[in-house]
Amino acid sequence: MAAPPEKTLKNLAGKWVMNKTLSDDTDRILQMQGVGWFYRRAIALATITLTVTEYTKDDGVTHIDISQVATPGGITSVENRTLDWEYHEHTDKIFGKVKGKSRWVKLGEVDDDEFLKTGWDDVEGEHVQSYVESDGGGWTADQVWGFEILDGKRYYVRHVVVRKGDDWKLARLVYDYQK
Description:
The protein is mainly beta and about 180 residues long. It has helices at about 25-30, 35-45, 115; strands at about 15-20, 45-55, 60-70, 75-80, 90, 95-105, 125-135, 140-150, 155-165, 165-175. The termini are close together.
């Protein structure tokens, strides 16, 4: 189902399921990130569910913790985002060792990639930007999160740009709200 109006980037808590009809194919991006054929095939066939917890600590920094599960298959991944624009290291089952940073951002502050800045429902407000570098894989992933109106309905969406050397791939990931 589309995102209810009370769901915002400051209130993402709940379950979100990737809408594969509205999302772009991720196979080329996953291949660029060094994900093997078996995992890519399993991800392509699976239902991807994000369980999101969002909170702000006493220091005022927002944290968005996401448990990602692909079913059937039970492939899991954890995304813990600390919106302080400082690098945090993480070892991921799928992507290996990475370091990433996240922040609240106005679209005008996002670097020169127009894909990351366009299509959003709210062009004036803050979005989430997440930037990840692979340790040894040679790739980077830059994401901006927000909401878009698609087919007259409002959805949680991520615009993703993955770069490796001179090559780059784009994808729009669209999520249905579950509860």
